[in-house]
Every structure is written in structure tokens, then in C-alpha cells.
Amino acid sequence: ITYKEDDEIGRLGQTFELMANSIKKYFDHFHSLAYTDSLTGLNNKAAYGITRDVIESEVQMGRASFSIIVMDVNNLKTINDTLGHEKGDILLTHVTECLRKTFVGFPLYRIGGDEFCSIINETTDPEMLITLLQTVTAKKSEDDFEFFQCRYQIAAGAATYEKDKDISFDDVFQRADDAMYENKRMLKERDKQERVGVGVGGVPDVSEA
Q1: Closest Cα to residue 130, out of 151, 105, 171, 159?
Q2: d(Cα 32, Cα 134) in Å, to the nearest integer?
Q3: Which residues pair with 73 in a beta bridge?
Q4: CA 74 – CA 56 distance, rounded (Å)
Q5: Which residue has the higher pLDDT, 205 or 18?
Q6: In angstroms, rounded to a whole number, what is the distance separating the alpha carbons of residues 173 and 157?
């Protein structure tokens, strides 16, 4: 109603406009609660499910084009067990900072306790984003070392939809998840070697373990 005269109809129109604006604010608020992770402010698992369903439809129609990057935080359990879950939650907010700095313009989802993912377009190199993310995270971890009393890293793996290979969205996700776990193994092994040190002839030096 756009009638603006200062009479009964005009006042009624203004009342309806105020009611409509209030309803929209409430709708936006509850939409945000439903699809936003309360701790990190990222899209939550429900939002991820909607996106997954949309892309799955595109896969079935043969017109999908996307890559998935799956991520998991190393050493969150250690921090939860030794320093408490409050500091673990703080770690997740610091990790979120690293994710936001890396995935500019791409959606980010928290799909589990310390599990995240992003869905990117085919024109972007996912391995480049992973390298950037782990560089950003390594710097942040160094800055945070005194606070958390250990270093943390984000393991990540990527997969790109291949029409001749993938029959569903989940096929792509599974390949990305497998790559993430391989990256997690590699990062833990590298961290172990850095902590233990290597002596002469490749013999481990445990004096600094």
C-alpha cells in the first residue's frame, strides 16, 4: 500500500508498511539463526545441505562445474583436553579468521566440530587456495603459540567434479575428504619430525622431544 495521505487509509497504509518491515526483520533473523553457525558465523551444516542438494541436481542434469575443499583442524583435541573447551572454541574462531582471509568470495561451511568445507568454481585452482590457507594458518599459529601452548594447522584436501567419473556430489566430496586425511597424516608426520629433530645419519634426536 503506497497511499500516503494523512487520513484513515493513509494511516492504515503506514501501519501495514511498519508491520511488513517488522515481519521481514523477524524472518531475516530466524533465517540467520537457522543457517548460520553460532560460534564461527560461517554457514552451518543445514546451509551446506541445501547447497549440496542444489549442486546434486546440477550433477544429475550433467551441467555441474565445481570443486570442493574439505578441511579439518589439527590439534584441536589436544587443546580441548589440556586447556579446556573454552580455549578450543577460541581456536575455532582464530581458524575462521584464516579461512575468511583465504576463501574471499567463496562460501564457507562448518559441517562438524572442527570440519569445514568450501565449494569453489572451476576457474580457481583449489591447490593454490590450500597452499595459501596453510601459509596463513602457520603464521597465525606462530602468533598464537604462547596462548595455546602448541601449534595448530588446517589439513585440507580438494577434488574437482569430473563428469565421466562422478555420478553424484558425494563422490566428489569423498575424494576431497580422502585427500584431506592424507594431508592430515603428512602434516602430523612433519610436525613430529620437527619436534623430535633428526640427528646425524638420519637417526632421530629425541633430546628435544
Answers
A1: 159
A2: 29
A3: 154
A4: 30
A5: 18
A6: 10
Share of the chain residues as helix, strand and coil, in percent rounded to the nearest 5:
60, 15, 25
| Grid coordinates given for 196 | 623430535
Average confidence (pLDDT) over 10-29 = 61
Q: For residues 52 and 60, give the distance between their C-alpha atoms in angstroms, rounded to a whole number.
A: 12
Q: Indicate the pLDDT class of residue 4, thresholds 50, 70 and 90.
A: low
C-beta atoms surrounding 119 within 10 Å: 20
The amino acid occupying position 165 is K
Using CB atoms within 10 A of its CB, is residue 26 exposed (0-12), middle (13-18) or buried (19+)?
Answer: exposed
CA separation, residue 182 to residues 76, 156, 186, 206 (Å): 18, 9, 6, 26
Residue ranges with strand state E in 82-207: 108-110, 115-120, 153-160
Q: Are 177 and 198 in contact (CB under 8 A)?
A: no
At 63-75, the pLDDT tens digits run 899 999 999 999 9
Helix, strand or coil, per DSSP, at residue 1: coil
- Grid coordinates representing 38? 553460532
pLDDT of 120 strictly over 60: yes
Backbone torsions φ then ψ of 119, nearest 5 degrees: -115, 120
